[in-house]
Write a structure and sequence with these properties.
heterodimer, A: 226 residues, alpha/beta, two-stranded parallel sheet, two-stranded antiparallel ribbon, 10 helices, 7 strands, 14% strand, flat, B: 220 residues, mainly alpha, 51% helix, elongated, binds adenosine-5'-diphosphate, binds magnesium ion
Chain lengths: 226, 220
């Protein structure tokens, strides 16, 4: 019954919504406040690879140019003007530089900002401070099963230290490393908790070291797991 | 929260709640967002002269480039798409395909607005749903018109039917019937699956949004 009522409610809501108005509002919103994130822009900067069947990088830049400059794009909801859409491009620029982009496109991206690679101290903050911090998330998830998950300060420091170390030793993937480390660290707990009757669990430094030791010791393995 | 009313400093403060460090990047995106709005307010002839404040975020992977942009979009209630520029260099792509970025952005925008409207009509939709459920459980009886003042058998039936309906309504509203089975017809393609995906989910999963939404738009 609850399920059926939900379906009825959704159906009734659809009847009450004026789709034409939705589309008008949506077109205006995309035009005036839309944000396009163009990742890996560095990969289309610079001379095209001499071999390989890839479409030339410069060609892609030329294709992007009108969209960034402001044009009208035909969509199934009508025309969308791109003049006021905000474009945020991003890239590591290890090999190429922003100045390797074609001048016209460079001109359309007048603001350049460098982001720093994150320190161990920042990892500690990332683990704990943001509203959606990983530790906040895991605590909330286990709370749904009536389990209080706690981390000692030195455990958090150890997680951050391990993340920085693995980043330095294998590939540097920044704060993403925290995700892989945390899921490895909590794997057992997440598996066992529903069938145990513990009400509270504390992760301390020793627990972090023990759990991650085997993975860290094996350099090759940690390349894949952590 | 309306972005038009947010100053760059307020935007930075809002970003601070989610992103550690990267102060310069936060500051620049905040200015860019405000500048876009400023540009939109400028008289048209001059506006065309002002170059939009598009940004390049330079930095290694996993330091918050995407997160900052996504949060910026979220706090300004703006539709957001992420695309890998490099995907357009792959074999099989042709020039105009870059316009698909804008089409995807619009799909996201439609979905956002649609969700907002759905929430706005939720109460009313629920009322209608309750009435429909009552009709399903207790099909309305069609009484014949009668001279006034007379109380025939059918009127009594009608009256008791009304009472039953009210009782059922109360039970429905209290959720007492939630677990009771009931059979309803659901057209196969009417499940609003768009609800399952958040705006950020879609672009990550690389689904063909156009196809997904196929059945939900007004038929042309
Ligand atoms: N400065 C930061 N503060 C908080 N979280 C961060 C920061 N940098 C990265 N993260 C987290 O790491 C993950 C990857 O970040 P992302 O922004 O996608 O990296 P990229 O710089 O490659 O775009 C996300 O889950 C994000 O929340
Ligand atoms: Mg990235």
């Amino acid at each position: 019954m609850a399920e059926a009522l939900k379906i009825f409610t959704q159906q009734e809501a659809q009847k009450l919504i004026d789709m034409e108005e939705v589309i008008r509002t949506a077109v205006a919103r995309a035009q005036n406040s839309g944000i396009v994130f163009l990742d890996e822009i560095d990969k289309i900067a610079g001379a095209s690879s001499k071999h390989g069947p890839d479409v030339s990088r410069e060609g892609v830049q030329r294709d992007l140019l009108p969209v960034v400059e402001g044009t009208s794009v035909v969509t199934k909801y009508g025309m969308v003007k791109t003049d006021h859409i905000l474009f945020v491009a991003s890239g590591a620029f290890h090999v190429s530089k922003p100045s390797d982009l074609i001048p016209e496109l460079q001109g359309r991206f007048p603001i350049r900002v460098e982001l720093n690679s994150l320190s161990e101290q920042e990892f500690i903050q990332i683990l704990t401070e943001p509203k959606n911090a990983l530790i906040v998330q895991y605590k909330a998830m286990l709370e749904t099963e009536g389990v209080e998950l706690k981390f000692t300060d030195d455990a958090i420091a150890e997680i951050a230290r391990t993340a920085a170390m693995v980043n330095a030793r294998s590939e540097n993937i920044g704060a993403r490393r925290l995700h892989t480390i945390m899921s490895n660290l909590l794997e057992e707990i997440l598996f066992e908790v529903p069938e145990s009757d513990v009400k509270s669990l504390t992760v301390d430094k020793k627990k972090v070291q023990e759990t991650l030791a085997s993975v860290i010791e094996d350099e090759d393995l940690s390349r894949y797991i952590l | 929260m309306k972005i038009d009313q947010l100053t760059p400093r307020q935007i930075v403060n809002a970003l601070d709640k989610y992103i550690i460090g990267q102060d310069k990047a936060k500051k620049m995106v905040a200015i860019a967002l405000r500048n876009r709005w400023r540009r939109q307010q400028v008289k048209e002839d001059l506006r065309e002269e002002i170059i939009p404040n598009n940004i390049i975020l330079i930095g290694p992977t996993g330091v918050g480039k995407t997160e900052i942009s996504r949060r910026l979009a979220k706090l300004s209630n703006a539709p957001f798409v992420k695309v890998e520029a490099s995907k357009f260099t792959e074999v099989g792509y042709v020039g105009r395909d870059v316009e698909s970025i804008i089409r995807d952005l619009l799909e996201i925008s439609v979905q956002m607005v649609r969700e907002e409207k759905t929430i706005a009509v939720e109460g009313k939709a629920h009322d209608h749903a309750i009435e429909r459920m009552l009709d399903t459980l207790l099909p309305p009886i069609t009484a014949k018109p009668k001279p006034v003042g007379e109380m025939g058998e059918e009127d009594k039936l009608e009256l008791s039917h009304q009472r039953t309906r009210e009782k059922l309504r109360a039970q429905l509203l209290e959720g007492k019937l939630d677990d009771r089975p009931v059979e309803i017809d659901v057209p196969a393609d009417s499940t609003p699956m768009m609800q399952i995906f958040s705006p950020m989910g879609i672009e990550e999963m690389g689904l063909n949004i156009q196809e997904m939404f196929g059945g939900m738009m007004p038929k042309k």
